[in-house]
Amino acid sequence: MHDDTRPHIRTGKLSRRDLVPAVAALAAVSGLQAAEAEDAPLPPGLAASVRDLEPYFFPQGRFQDVSRGNPVPHSLSEARRGEVGLTRDTWKLDVVSDPEQPARLERELSRKDGTALDFAGLMRLVEKHAVRFPKVMTCLNIGCPLGMGIWEGVPLREVLWLTRPRENLRRVFYYGYHNDDPKQLFRSSLPVGRVLEDPFGLPPVIVCYKLNGEWLDPKRGGPVRIVVPEAYGFKNVKWLSHVVLTNLAYANDTYIGGNNDVDSPLKTFCAVLQAPGGVKPGAAIPVTGWAQVGIAGLSKVQTWVQPAGAMWPADDPYYTRAPWADARILPPPSDWGGEFAGGRVPPQTQGFDPGTGRPLTWPMRLSKAHWAALLPGLSAGNYVLRCRTVDANGQAQPMPRPFRKSGFVEIQATAFSVG
Questions:
Q1: CATH of domain 16-59+267-418
Q2: 272 in Cβ contact with 287 (< 8 Å)
């Protein structure tokens, strides 16, 4: 996973003295990896590293947590969670019009009127409308996955239609429980068109109650949260309690206050999982990693090794002229992990063939992929390994959206030594 403490080589003028050994070493990398057919068996030195990779889907307990709140709502006692509506027996959801920019609804679902949607009502919607799909959960500003799983829920539009909206509805605001403290309120929003329709073959935005076939635990936002397939974590609000239908034309997300691009979908980028360590001169170097497959898909993962201290031209900050070499994007696993019975994905999961249980496309968008590369032996010294993705549109990371506040996409630099 990405580590911001790892050194990144500064840009500057590249001398011929720096360039010659760098190009020579990396020409060898390119030659070796280009010779490896995608369907060829992995070399023994690389196969062992691939066997040690993390599971594709994470059990709930393995997800990283960046929850907000003081105290964090999932840390409340079970009794207190029951009191504030954070158990399946006590959960309720208000779906109301925005009092300041009202949408025209025939009815509201609210606690004060005794009409709020409860968990039993949600389960009645499940009987006809349940969907499940894979999604990687990542933070806008963090270069590693929080977790990867199969999320199950009811399309948010089915809940919205219970209010029988008529007009003046342009955006959907939503937020969750945060200790009844206005200063801790964390909210997000979507244009109503994204809620009502699923563009470009995306799964629907869901009111989510299960992860990997199990009820959402409190740490994962249970009993109920929002999951937006193409979005970063801040759009996937935990401990859902309110949906507000508004005629306001712009977002009200909490993340706007941090100068974040709140409408930016997932980007495609990669990072190292197993970095080189204890490398002997001349020995082949196995490297493995993961890639986030963003909205633009994934066609390649590439690596590049450069001697430490070598400079690079200032007019090429994204290393577009570097001798990148293709790594191997690994095929779908035989055991998907996630504590699924037999390592198999549940039936009727979007993106998977119902007959074979295999993915319809690979790598799957809005998910992750694993990759591996066997670097050739190097002489003793200090080096920097970089990796990048090329998306399905031919754009090399960090393009086409290199801006940090629209999602993490920096090219990772990992230092290692030989000798």
A1: 2.60.40.650
A2: yes
Most distant CA atoms of the chain, gap in Å: 77
Which tens digit of pLDDT belongs to each residue from 139-175?
A: 999 988 999 999 999 999 999 999 999 999 999 999 9
Looking at domain 66-258, its CATH superfamily turns out to be Oxidoreductase, molybdopterin-binding domain (3.90.420.10)
Q: Is 136 helix (H, G, I), strand (E, B) or coil?
A: strand
pLDDT digits (tens, 9 = 90+) for 216-246: 999 999 999 999 999 999 999 999 999 999 9
Enumerate the CATH 3.90.420.10 domain ranges in the chain, comma separated.
Answer: 66-258
- pTM given for the model: 0.89
Which residues lie below 8 Å from residue 44, measured CB to CB, with a gap of 6+? none
Report the alpha-carbon distance of residue 411 to residue 398 in Å, rounded.
7
Q: Is the peptide bond before 71 cis (omega within 30 degrees of 0)?
A: yes
What order of strands is seen across the sheet that includes strand 325-326? 325-326, 300-307, 381-390, 412-418
